[in-house]
Design a protein that fits this description.
With 487 residues, this protein is of the alpha/beta class. The protein has 19 helices and 15 strands. It binds S-adenosylmethionine. The site of S-adenosylmethionine has 22 residues, from strand 6.
Length: 487
């Protein structure tokens, strides 16, 4: 078994009894409790909580098992839209199953870095309630479409009407204007995309417009002059552009018909399990657009389980979600995604990335002291990086500062003792591996959480765009399991 077990004790406090499982356990300094599940701490290993034993049993299997090589498929709603660094659906599904086997009361799942909603779709097919948050409007669009409603017959009728509107529109006007429009879209493509846009805007139901916008996003991605082999905005080579003919309407139509089939498949799957009532999912789904350093709005603050994968590092030097989303979001009506979507986030190609975790280096050096006090792993890495370049330390500090700012609101939404499953990658800065797993554990332990286990996995290549430089340095990640404090 390759699960690594932890629970290092700093000093030996008197034993106390767990109120949940009535077992004896030890308390660390600062009153925090840890499970004696590590033979590495030199003390006689005590049995973990029953729930954690069940969980650890489910998490066995080793690196290859959790890599899901050749065992992953994006079906139904998972296949609506491409998004950078999507999680493997089967992985998230098995993690949900493992957590529920350990705690059968789990009902309400939270993903504060929800991306295109892989965990959401897996939670839905298990009939769970779900809350998700993301700073990127494109991610929120994908999630809200996945959440439903599921009206396949209606979307087919509406699609016929939309295709009629599009076919009879012969206007040559270009309806959007943004910096670099001429660079990224040939006029003929922009005229075609404008006809799609007008046809979508002619639909009266917002749920249907959102479904159409997802197909529009794919059409923009495939017909722009930017390469599809990288998440960064990067012009296709001139020889490829010369003589290139693309018809956005044809791409849109093909994507839309494919997505309708996915919607039908998903609706069928949910209905068979009694999870759809008149086309609506029977559970509660709440997707919020915003920064996870802010509390969820209107949340009951008692969510049962956290499953998430935060970014690997700042977007600029890891995965540029913002650049990837810049062109599609110029064509989608932001108001249809969310009434509070801020156009400033797509004012230029870097705005969204600058607002995401680690996006601003300003004040990063000041944060380093607090972070170093909280996390020995951060301190060691900062010292190591200081000899490499001051900018490298700043980059590390800025990302960790922003992650740290998200942790109080995140942990505050969870019920005491709730499980947290974080999948984190260790990117490199200045040619050194950042121990993000360890830094995150330090920061959460400082908030009373207990580290239960760490499960390493490889990242299958296909998850990363081939020519994205991060693919060369990021080959593995770790599923870090912690238990929220206060139980
Ligand atoms: C690794 S992705 C999540 C992928 C997701 N699990 C999926 O399968 O699509 C990380 C996400 O964190 C989001 N993000 C970055 N900074 C954020 C912040 N401050 N608040 C909320 N979301 C943020 C990014 O927009 C991105 O969608």
């Amino acid at each position: 078994m390759e699960v690594r077990l932890f629970g290092a004790l700093r000093r030996k406090p008197p034993p106390e009894r767990c109120r949940r499982c009535n077992r004896m356990r030890a308390a660390t300094s600062g009153g925090r409790s840890v499970l004696l599940i590590s033979p590495m701490n030199g003390l006689a290993p005590a049995p973990p909580h029953k729930a954690d034993r069940i969980l650890l049993g489910s998490l066995g299997g080793g690196v290859e098992y959790w890599t899901f090589r050749h065992r992953a498929a994006r079906r139904f709603a998972h296949a609506y839209m491409q998004y950078p660094a999507m999680m493997v659906p089967e992985l998230q599904g098995e993690l949900l199953d493992a957590a529920r086997a350990a705690d059968t009361s789990v009902r309400h799942v939270y993903d504060p870095f929800v991306g295109c909603g892989t965990t959401l779709a897996e939670a839905m097919i298990r009939g769970l309630d779900f809350a998700g948050k993301d700073i990127n409007p494109l991610a929120v669009l994908a999630c809200r479409v996945k959440a439903g409603p599921y009206f396949p017959a209606a979307i087919r009728r509406k699609t016929e009407l939309l295709l009629d509107r599009m076919a009879t529109d012969s206007r040559r006007t270009i309806d959007v204007s943004f910096p670099g429009r001429e660079k990224w879209f040939d006029d003929s493509v922009a005229v075609g995309l404008s006809r799609i846009r007008r046809a979508v805007c002619g639909e009266s139901a917002r749920w249907a417009r959102r479904f159409f916008w997802v197909a529009m996003v794919e059409s923009v991605r495939l017909t722009s002059n930017s390469r599809t082999s990288t998440f960064k905005l990067h012009m296709r080579p001139q020889e490829e552009l010369t003589g290139r003919r693309c018809c956005p309407q044809a791409v849109f139509c093909e994507t839309l018909l494919r997505n309708i089939r996915h919607m039908e498949g998903q609706a069928h799957y949910l209905r068979d399990r009694g999870l759809l009532r008149r086309g609506h999912y029977t559970g509660a789904v709440d997707i919020q657009l915003g920064d996870s350093s802010q509390n969820l709005e209107g949340s009951p603050k008692q969510l049962d389980l956290l499953i998430t994968s935060p970014p690997y590092g700042d977007n600029q030097t890891t995965v540029p979600y913002g650049q990837y989303s810049f062109l599609p979001l110029q064509w989608v009506d932001l108001g249809d995604i969310d009434a509070h979507a801020d156009a400033a986030l797509i004012a230029n190609t870097h705005a969204l990335d600058s607002h995401s975790l680690g996006g601003s280096l300003r004040g990063a050096s000041d944060a380093a002291t607090t972070l170093a006090e909280m996390s020995p792993a951060f301190r060691r890495m900062a010292v190591d990086l200081a000899s490499a370049s001051p900018n490298a330390t700043k980059r590390l500090s800025a990302f960790c500062r922003d992650l740290h700012a998200c942790l109080d609101p995140i942990v505050g939404q969870l019920k005491p003792g709730a499980l947290m499953l974080w999948t984190v990658g260790s990117r490199r800065i200045a040619n050194r591996q950042v121990p993000l797993e360890r830094i995150l554990i330090d920061m959460l332990e400082a908030r009373g959480a207990t580290h239960v286990a760490s499960v390493p996995r490889h990242i299958p290549n296909k998850r990363m765009a081939v020519r994205n430089s991060i693919a060369d340095t990021m080959r593995s990640e770790t599923i870090v399991v912690l238990r929220n404090g206060g139980h």
